Amino acid sequence: MRIDNHTHVGFDPLFYMQGWSPYCLDLPRLFNEADGFNIDAFVVFPFVAYTALDMAAIKRNRIQLAADADAVPYEFENRRLCNDILRCPADWQSRLWPFLIADPSRKPEAQVRAWQALPSEYRIYGLKFQTHTIQSPILALLDEGACMLDYAEAHDLPLLIHTSIRAEDKWSQCSDILRVVESRPKVRFVLAHSCRFHQPTLDRVAQLPNAWFDCSAFITHCICAQRDLPAVAAPVDRFESDYMSPERVLQDLAQAYPDKLIWGSDVPYYSIEYDRLQIRSSYRREVACLDALPAPARERVCHRNTLAWLGSIDTSSS
């Protein structure tokens, strides 16, 4: 079985209004992108910026919650994803494993109430946090957002968290995420984007029984390493490999962390255009790295390790 653990569906108003890409993807395009690559299941979640933010501020590239007293982060996006999946053909539904996306610092209790109000036929597989774009500190999960971790623990839901190692990033630092992981040993976590190839973080993930990391948007991050861009760890702290060959890097990661690496594409974020940064890749290129792995390693990173993180899932229909 081949599982893509990291896919976005929906629309991002911030990327759209700022002229950045990507900013949208629907379920038919997701299946079209993956067609022919033998992907059996997709972990899916909404895009990052949400419609409960103040749209006038979004146009100015500023993040603030709308003044409307009823505005709840991601309430619309999570319900829209729910409805999209429930309208899908049965064979698509069985292959879509939805995560709810969350903002840990803005109205977290109201978000949990919105989760509880979703239709009973909607199965939730986990929670997703991308706190960099929405400027919401992941450490809020240890304070006002702790109710979200309570919910995850009560419902045995894993978490997937966007990572950063940029010094100026106050919202999604790898070191802060590790504090959250260590605080909840009963909750399973994935740190996204190969932990930006930050060797100390990768080594710490390897030590924690409730932590894994994924390689989403892998080609993009290898290109960042080739260019020594600050999106990945500086050479002194970078996982040692040949970043001119993403296939080699993935093989080295799979060998160094055989039980911790999980494969995901980050569709459609394998290509990105953001201010002066422009990197192009494709679903085909992401899968090519996976397929270059020896068969036992490939089975671990896109199946066994993924299910260990996700927990108990009935895959009999997939």
Automatic annotation (TrEMBL):
Domain Amidohydrolase-related, chain residue ranges per copy: 57-311
One Pfam family matching this protein: Amidohydro_2
Top-rank lineage group of the source organism: Bacteria
Alphabetized SUPFAM superfamilies for the sequence: Metallo-dependent hydrolases
InterPro entries (UniProt xref): Amidohydro-rel, Metal_Hydrolase
Database matches in Gene3D superfamilies: Metal-dependent hydrolases
Protein name: Amidohydrolase family protein
Organism: Natronomicrosphaera hydrolytica
